Amino acid sequence: MKINNKTEICISIAQHPSNFGVTVHNTAYEKMGLNFIYKPFKITDLRGAIRAIRVLGIRGCSVTMPFKEKVIKYLDKLDVTASGVGAVNTIVNNKGKLIGYNTDVYGAFRVLQELRIPTSNRILVLGGGGVAKAISYALYKLNFHNVFMSNRTIRKVKTIAEKFGYEVLPWGRRNDLAADMLINATSIGMVSQENMMPVSNSALRKYHMVMDVVVTPIHSRLINKAKMLRKKVIPGYKMSLYQAAAQFELYSRKKAPLAIMQKAILSML
Questions:
Q1: Do both 65 and 138 map to the same domain?
Q2: How many CA atoms lie within 13 A of 57 on its CB side?
Q3: Is the dihedral of CA 192, 43, 137, 106 positive or negative?
Q4: Which of 14, 69, 112, 160 has a CA 20 to 30 Å removed from the CA of 81?
Q5: Cis ω on the peptide bond leading into residue 118 (within 30° of 0)?
Q6: Active site residue: 31, 39, 68, 231, which one?
Q7: Residue 209 near residue 179, CB atoms below 8 Å
Q8: 192: pLDDT confidence band, cut at 50, 70 and 90?
Q9: Closest CA to 212 of 247, 188, 176, 246
Q10: Strands 60-63 and 232-234, how do they pair?
Q11: Are residues 127 and 80 in the same domain?
Q12: DSSP assignment, residue 11?
């Protein structure tokens, strides 16, 4: 894509950038004939990065861990969802005014809504970061209240659980719970930990459905094991697809080409 003075630039800021956003967004921009480009940046100076968005007139910015909560103090405004969650994964620059959104919530909401499961189901959410917050908020908005949360750092998960009225399960007891659905919102299972699972094999047998947020590899060890046990599985790319589509629409003000974006994700992975 040729960049000129009319090109709208979108970026991602991360501690460990990936090719996910680059592939998905740029493929969609090209197919839609939009003069946009998306570039990832590895940063350590969050305040400086946000200042650069203003100064350079960057249209949009994707925010990944560990910056989703930290970035809030540098923004001018939060939309209702980002405010409710207490985490931001998307920034839109509206003529110098930086507005924070959380499209992770939209991604989680779409996936959970499509499952059409009873709101009385018992659900265990593992994790205490920004993604776990987004999923917990989506569950709350969909009227799921029989939710348990567990995380290696108990303090982080207590704050989320108290906010939505969920129960806290100590990390050491996560394998003891019998529930309908397991949602892994931790980094366990990603490329550097691809031989690991967040629960034991025997614990996995207790669930009917397993959802993972891990995108790379496309089928984590948790998802592969669950498939072998004939569980219903929701791999991480599903939530990522929907959240990226919501970002695309915020940046471009155009309807996201969902099928094209999904094909780009699957081809990449």
A1: no
A2: 5
A3: negative
A4: 14
A5: no
A6: 68
A7: no
A8: confident
A9: 188
A10: unpaired
A11: no
A12: E
Tell me what the mean pLDDT of segment 99-117 comes to: 96
Report the 10 Å Cβ neighbour count for 149: 29
Cβ atoms of 169 and 149 closer than 8 Å? yes
Residue 68 annotated in active site: yes
Which one, of 160, 156, 162, 199, lies nearest residue 181 by Cα? 199
Residue 18 CB coordination number (10 Å): 15
pTM of the entire predicted model: 0.92
Question: Amino acid letter at 184?
Answer: N
Same domain, 216 and 109: yes
Per-residue confidence band for 157, with pLDDT thresholds at 50, 70 and 90: very high
CATH code for the domain of 218: 3.40.50.720
Number of domains the chain contains: 2
By 3-state DSSP, what share of the chain in percent is helix, strand and coil, each rounded to 5?
Answer: 45, 20, 40
- Write the DSSP assignment of 151-179 as a string of letters: -SSHHHHHHHHHHHTPEE--GGGTTT---
Q: What is the mean pLDDT of residues 237-264?
A: 96
Residues 141 and 250 grouped into a single domain: no
